[in-house]
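Predict structure. Chain length: 203.
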Amino acid sequence: MSATRLLVLAFVRAHQSAHGYLIGQELLAWNADKWANTKTGSIYHALRQLAKEGFLDEIDVPSSGTAPARTEYSITEAGDAEFHQLMEKALTLPQPRSDMLCAGLVLMSALPRPTVLALLGKRLTTLAKQRSEVSRANSTVSFSGANALPPHVEALLSFWTHNTDCNHDWLTGLIAKIEAGAYVFADEDPMAFGVPGGSFVIP
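Prediction complete.
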C-alpha cells in the first residue's frame, strides 16, 4: 500500500480537479515527505498510475496568458471507491511503517464518524490480538539451557512489548475521544476537511 497513492487520490477527490504541481506543492508544504515518505517524483508517478488504472481522468489544459499547458486530474467513480478502500486499509491494518496510518488519520474527517469508529475498532481488535501474542511469546522465551537466546535479546522483546502496548493504549484513547465528540467528520459538516468541495488546507 502507498500513502502517496492515498494522499493523491484524496487531494484530487477533495479539490475535484487538480494538477501535479499544485498537489506536490501542497503535500510538501504539509511535510508529507517526512510522515508519509511522499516525494515529488512519487506524486507524479501516482497520478499517472492512477489515471492508467482508471481511478483518475486526465484533462489536457492548453496554455493561457502566463499559465503554461498542464494536465488536470479529476477522480472517477472507481477512484472514489479506491479512496474508500485505501482508507479502510489505512485505519484498520497495523503495519511496521506508520505512513499509511498517518495518511489515514489526516484524512479521516472525509469519512462519517461511525465509519471511522468502526474501522478503528477493527484495528484495536487486531492490536489486542497482537499484544496477546507478544505476551505469550515472551513467556516461552528462555535465556538459559540448551536452546537459550543471548541475554541481550531481552531488549528486543522489551521493545516489542512496549511498542504493542503503546499502540493499543494510544488507539483506545483516540477512539474514546472520537466517541466523546472530538473533531468534525463528513456526516456532520459538508465542508469538513477532505470532503469533496470542502476544506483541504492543513492549518
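Summary: The mean pLDDT is 88.
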